[in-house]
């Protein structure tokens, strides 16, 4: 999480840290602006979005890796009152369907899925940097990988 938050320059916006997510208050922007911002900051070609893309949001829950499932994402909407959840991945029939149903009910909710590796790569880079400092006698390298999926 530290690496992902630093890569997004959002570490100063954290208002609550949970074991599986960080709760942030970011400057108000539309979901589509958040998606574009994330793509630029993480150098990724696409993200997937559920919900209303023109919806303004400020309160965000963010999780790395496989933490976008209903068991972890839906409580962020219900208990933390987030407008937007940003996660790596999760089952498509859980949180995305919850968001779709919430929008049908007139609720302002959205979900951005980054991709599993795309959400974890900043943390792996951060870890390599930490290990390099901690163990200067050992060569430590972050090896950037290409995305698993191709856009056709």
Helix content: 25-40%
SSE topology string? HEEHEEHEHEH
Fraction of residues in β-strands: 15-25%
Low-pLDDT parts are none
Query: What is the topology, as strand order, of the major beta sheet?
Result: 1-2-4-5-6-3
**Structural class label:** alpha/beta
Major sheet: 6 strands, mixed
Cα-atom radius of gyration: 16 Å
Please tell me about this protein's structure.
The chain has helices spanning 2-7, 31-42, 70-79, 95-104, 116-134; strands at 14-17, 22-30, 48-51, 56-62, 84-87, 110-113. By secondary structure, it is α/β, with parallel strands linked by helices. Helices cover 38% and strands 21% of the residues. The chain is built from five helices and six strands, in the order H-E-E-H-E-E-H-E-H-E-H. The radius of gyration is 16 Å and the shape is globular. The protein has a six-stranded mixed β-sheet with strand order 1-2-4-5-6-3. The mean pLDDT is 95.
Layout of secondary structure:
Blueprint: H1 2-7, E1 14-17, E2 22-30, H2 31-42, E3 48-51, E4 56-62, H3 70-79, E5 84-87, H4 95-104, E6 110-113, H5 116-134
Parallel strand pairs: 4-5, 5-6
Antiparallel strand pairs: 1-2, 2-4, 3-6
